[in-house]
């Protein structure tokens, strides 16, 4: 699999916080059929990646130098004979999609859309996932209650917005302990 969608990368590895393709800088999680995963990341995010995931194979690239992220994917594909690469077709940035398509067709490989498979997989939630969803719901309720308490004729909209943000922030902060977040 060659994954570029931030939500899918987070689901598969716990990695979040990259700038992403809106800045023209793909972060890629490559998951082989067997063996260890590889993260291909812009150089500026390398330390973040190392701090966030237990994946050992982290390959960084620098904007505007060489073939950037392409070299690392090429290196991964070298050991594959006519590979079939699974991607999320509509969540893979066009520049990555087109490059993969060109490289694989030249080498006899092909792309396959794994969006449905990953969607089904993401439906499986751990106890920690469920707890986070419950906490997010509690934050949303606190925000709605803050709005209901503040909204009234003559109250400026920005006051309601400030109350909503404060209510949500206070509730979210209540989930943190001195030794870190209570997310489990």
What is the gyration radius calculated from CA atoms? 21 Å
- Going by helix content, strand content and strand pairing, the class is alpha/beta
Question: What distance lies between the first and last C-alpha atoms, to the nearest angstrom?
Answer: 29 Å
Counted by DSSP, the helix tally is: 7
Beta-strand residue percentage? 5-15%
Nearest-integer average pLDDT: 90
What is the string of helix and strand elements? EHEEHEHEHEHHHEE
How are strands sequenced across the largest beta sheet? 1-2-3-4
Low-confidence stretches: none
Principal-axis shape equals elongated
Largest sheet: 4 strands, mixed
> What is the percent of helical residues?
40-55%
In total, the number of strands is: 8
Map the helices and strands.
Elements: E1 2-3, H1 6-13, E2 28-30, E3 38-42, H2 46-52, E4 57-61, H3 69-77, E5 84-87, H4 94-106, E6 110-113, H5 115-122, H6 127-150, H7 157-173, E7 176-177, E8 180-181
Parallel strand pairs: 3-4, 5-6
Antiparallel strand pairs: 1-2, 2-3, 7-8
Brief write-up:
The protein is an alpha/beta fold and 184 residues long. The chain has seven helices and eight strands, in the order βαββαβαβαβαααββ.
Structure report:
The protein has 184 residues and is of the alpha/beta class. 47% of the residues lie in helices and 15% in strands. It contains 7 helices and 8 strands. Strands 1-2-3-4 form a 4-stranded mixed sheet, with helices on both faces. A two-stranded parallel sheet has the order 5-6. A two-stranded antiparallel sheet has the order 7-8. Strand 7 (176-177) and strand 8 form a beta hairpin. Helix 6 runs antiparallel to helix 7 (157-173). The protein is elongated, with a radius of gyration of 21 Å.
């Amino acid at each position: 699999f060659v994954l570029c969608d931030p939500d899918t990368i987070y689901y598969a590895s716990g990695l979040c916080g990259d700038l992403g393709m809106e800045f023209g800088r793909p972060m890629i999680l490559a998951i082989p059929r067997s063996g260890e995963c590889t993260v291909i990341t812009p150089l500026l995010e390398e330390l973040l990646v190392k701090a966030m995931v237990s994946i050992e194979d982290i390959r960084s690239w620098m904007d505007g130098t060489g073939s950037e992220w392409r070299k690392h994917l090429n290196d991964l594909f070298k050991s594959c004979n006519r590979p079939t690469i699974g991607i999320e077709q509509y969540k893979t940035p066009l520049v990555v999609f087109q490059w993969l398509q060109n490289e694989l067709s030249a080498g006899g490989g092909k792309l396959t859309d794994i969006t449905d498979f990953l969607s089904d997989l993401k439906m499986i939630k751990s106890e920690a996932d469920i707890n986070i969803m419950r906490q997010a719901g509690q934050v949303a309720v606190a925000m709605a209650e803050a709005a209901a308490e503040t909204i009234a004729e003559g109250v400026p909209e920005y006051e309601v917005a400030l109350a909503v943000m404060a209510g949500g922030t206070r509730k979210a902060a209540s989930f943190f302990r001195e030794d870190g977040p209570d997310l489990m």
